[in-house]
Fold PHF7 protein.
Amino acid sequence: FFVRDTRRVIQEAAKKHCFACSKIGATITCWKAGCDRSFHLPCAPQGECVTQFFGLYRSFCWEHRPRQAVQACPRQNNTCSICLDAVEDKTSYKTMVCPACQDAQFHRHCIQRLALHAGVCFHCPCCQNQEPFLMEMLTMGIRISKRPPSWESDPAVGALDQRHSRCDAGTCLCPGGRKHTEEEGPWELLLCSSCAAEGTHQHCSSLENSTSSWECKGC
């Protein structure tokens, strides 16, 4: 009976159209009672849908997805606290805010990437808060890994108590080599502000001498 029932569910799902791409095979249906919108999991970002990766693993379409109750504090320069690029001046599907400090704003794709890298050490990149930050991110559809931070398992990082100490730029221009570093100037070594697992000399990444924060391409 279970096999027949499962087969029937799969057959019915195969006939449903994804409201985001219009193709059939949309196996995810909005959890909201009375809503028949279905979508493919890869189409979720395109359709601004949310899937919660905990508890009942509920999914919601763009109309019924959860929204943050807290609003970002008005700032003169609205920038993502992770990539430092511009964000919207209000919360939305693509722009999120930390519910604890209400000052950290970030792109959805940036905080998702940080969550996968940080694993069990995931917290607000600005105020370091884990609760209620963690629950808020889960509710808003951010997938959080339960493994140790990626930089702890990366052989290139070395011992856990050892600070990364080399330039990882494609071409290192420093006359002293990749491990040479100075306290300031073009050969000051900056570590990625998100993962701390990669570094660069300011000059090797065409950064200005006044630059104090840098993020690697992986983050």
Q: What stands out?
A: The helical segments are 2-14, 108-118, 133-139, 150-153. The radius of gyration is 21 Å. The first helix runs from residue 2 to 14. The chain has four helices and eight strands.
